[in-house]
Amino acid sequence: MSVFKTTDPKERPVILKLDTWENKILRSHTEMDGLLPQIRGLIEDPCYILYDETRGEPNTHREEYWDLMAIAKWHQVRALRAVVEFYDNEPKRPGDIVTVHIAGKVKGKTERGIIHER
């Protein structure tokens, strides 16, 4: 079951699974509650997509989605970061959002190149 399924700027399907949302993201990053429209918007129109340094399951790779977001309740602009895991041997399978959070610092790495820039 999913919270949402959308398409990123590279025309790849991306999904946020209900289990990931409830049991990983909201438990670890309670500040994300109520921000589903912003998370979907981050996937659909990020400022940057970068290669992520961490590895997930075998035959997968992870990418970081970055953008800035105004947080009204905090009266601040902060960086929003999502990590999506893609399946190398199954190009039509949706990428899974594995985490999303408001970043305290922006420190995306670009050594391997930038996948997408708005």
Q: What is the N-to-C succession of helices and strands?
A: EEHHEEEEE
Overall 3D geometry?
globular
Mean pLDDT: 92
Largest sheet: 7 strands, mixed
Number of domains: 1
| Count, helices | 2
Question: Unreliable runs, pLDDT <50, ≥5 residues?
Answer: none
Q: Beta-sheet strand percentage? A: 35-45%
The largest sheet has its strands arranged as: 1-2-6-5-4-3-7
Give a description of the structure.
With 118 residues, this protein is an alpha+beta fold. The protein has one domain (2-108). It contains 2 helices and 7 strands, in the order ββααβββββ. The chain has a 7-stranded mixed β-sheet with strand order 1-2-6-5-4-3-7. Strand 1 (2-7) and strand 2 (13-17) form a beta hairpin.
Brief digest:
This protein is of the alpha+beta class and 118 residues long. The protein has helices at 18-28, 36-44, and strands spanning 2-7, 13-17, 48-51, 60-71, 76-87, 95-103, 114-117. A 7-stranded mixed β-sheet has the order 1-2-6-5-4-3-7.
What features would you highlight for this structure?
118 residues, 2 helices, 7-stranded mixed β-sheet
Give the secondary structure arrangement, pairings included.
Blueprint: E1 2-7, E2 13-17, H1 18-28, H2 36-44, E3 48-51, E4 60-71, E5 76-87, E6 95-103, E7 114-117
